[in-house]
Amino acid sequence: MIVETLYEFCGVARVLFTRIGANLVDRRPIELARRAIESARVLKDGRDGISYLIAAKRNGILTALTDSYEEEIKRQVGASSLEEALAKIGQG
Question: Looking at the domain assignment, is residue 69 inside a domain?
Fold first, then answer.
């Protein structure tokens, strides 16, 4: 982990942030969805991959994989929304 500094970023004089290397080799939506679903089965406190994706989307955080990742979660669980996926897994 590396700590870096941005100066005068979006009206903030100084911003410290961490740069963390990628920890997943296989970033295909099918694999990301599998991991998110498994984490939702194990973690019942909102720290799972599906809850994280819901929160990220709610906060406007989108990546090139967001849509396909979400669709794959819904496909694997047989749900029409991420919230329904959590409910089907047993968190809703």
Answer: yes
